[in-house]
Amino acid sequence: MAKRMFQEAIDLKTRHARAAAWLLAALLACAGVGRAAPGDMPASAESVKGLRLPLQRHPNGRVEALLIAEEAWMTADGVAAKGGIQMFLMSAEGLTNGIARAVEGTFNQKAKTARCVGPVFLEKEGVTLSGTNMLWDSSVNEITIETKPVLTLVRSGRSAVEGL
Fold first, then answer.
1. Phi and psi dihedrals of 97, rounded to 5?
2. What is the Rg, in whole angstroms, of the alpha carbon atoms belonging to the chain?
3. Which of 36, 75, 138, 157 is buried deepest, with most CB atoms within 10 A?
4. Percent of the chain with pLDDT over 90
């Protein structure tokens, strides 16, 4: 019995880690680019201020993923954004079911890699992932939080450990 409960907890952790990885990948894929941090971009780069961009829609027309950033611009390798980067994932009924937040992000479309500088936060399906400075590599489906990584799993309103 204990072995089965332990395996269920591991399976839940894996599923939640995948959900967090997907959410992060989506945030970074849409928010950021290149090797340079957004603060390193030349002042002459044209930017969009107050970005609110629907990224995907459900078959019924409602927004499925919405990207918000204070400022975003194209780079030679993709996109960069800074200031209040948020991505909301929504159900077909219009309810928010996931959110990701970052301060600065770059996404290299060619390499399919992304980097967030500063604090990052992701939450979806009872999984919360947070920390400082994040790297994402889609070729190996890997997220690395450089400092202060925290992964929290919640099950039935309790942490995964309490739920056992």
1. -125, 10
2. 17
3. 75
4. 21
Residue-wise pLDDT tens digits, 140-160: 878 888 999 999 887 776 665
- Select from 38, 108, 100, 39 the least CA-distant residue to 67: 100
Q: Residue 121, SS3?
A: strand
Tell me if residue 136 falls in helix, strand or coil. Answer: strand
Give the integer Cα–Cα distance in Å for 1 and 4.
Answer: 5
Cα 77 from Cα 136, distance rounded (Å): 15
Segment holding 19, helix H or strand E: helix 2-31
Strand-pair partners of 69: 51
What does residue 114 show for φ and ψ, rounded to 5 degrees? -145, 160
CA 158 from centroid of its chain's CA atoms: 23
**Residue 93: which residues within 8 A CB-CB, separation 6 or more?**
62
